[in-house]
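Q: How do we represent a protein-ligand complex in a form that can be generated token by token?
A: Start from the inputs.
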Amino acid sequence: MSTAIPLNVGITRSAGAGTTESVGKRVLLAEPRGYCAGVDRAVETVEKSLEKHGAPIYVRKEIVHNRHVVETLREQGVIFVDETDEVPEGAVVVFSAHGVSPAVHESAAARNLHTIDATCPLVTKVHQEAKRFARDDYDILLIGHEGHEEVEGTAGEAPDHVQLVDGPASVDKVTVRDESKVIWLSQTTLSVDETMETVRRLRERFPTLQDPPSDDICYATQNRQVAVKAMAPECDLVIVVGSRNSSNSVRLVEVALNAGAKASYLVDYAREVDQAWLDGVSTVGITSGASVPEILVRGVLDMLEEHGFADVQPVTTANETLVFSLPRELRTTTRR
Ligand code: 0CN
Ligand code: SF4
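Then emit the structure tokens for the protein with 0CN bound:
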């Protein structure tokens, strides 16, 4: 598992912004945070599809797991559906960043839908691994959260070869056909530490367990966890901006607590911050999940400033520059 190189984790004690109310109060702002390359691409895919085809267009599941993003797109004419059979014959449907199983592609084709696939290329990479190891007749242990769309899509590539391992506590239930031919793969948005613990336990049972050819937990998930770990020991409170169904966002709360934050909460919007959380607090850490627009973080920072937290110090542990090109049929103009 690769680790990001710390760039600026020197955290200084703050004297506050000057007023009595703000003395000693400061915010540590995690960098990187927020949108990853796959989310940026997926959201732009929907926006460009709307421009090209006109409203309404359909999106299967939430394009990314963020309430604000979904509500904003809905206002622009997107109809979110659970399954392709809710989409009228021949209409445009976008598949979400989390990926879909081949069965979903087939049912869309059977209804003559015009599909645009916003699956993150890093999820597609895990699909390819699942297909390849299934072809070689491995038992594939897919570490991930039961019911999450991404694991449903990945497992659907090779349902006869994949079994889901939902964390360390599920390891004892695993059975394999041939212990010398077992590989683990994973969902892209898990806790790195918890996944390593799951793998450690799996390897106790299956000593020749093979590792994936490259990290399945994606760079964005890893980088956001490294940044929150760097600031958490200094924090009385870590506020993570993100939605409850966003796996990577929820993981940031767990990582913050495990790394020493005294308290940590997940909020979609600044208005959800309970003022009591700020009682007696001097250092607040802020981060956001990979599906979270920066405007929502801005809202939390503005609210904190009103409460005397005007001193904002970045905690930078990586620089991200990755950009994914749009699906081919939308690649008419250059991206920002
Ligand atoms: O919040 P997301 O939409 O999804 P999960 O963290 O729940 O997987 O973030 C984008 C991740 C992907 C794929
Ligand atoms: Fe892709 Fe990772 Fe972002 Fe998911 S979190 S969309 S896998 S880059």
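The chain is about 30% helix and 15% strand. Residues 1-8, 13-18 have pLDDT under 50 and may be disordered.
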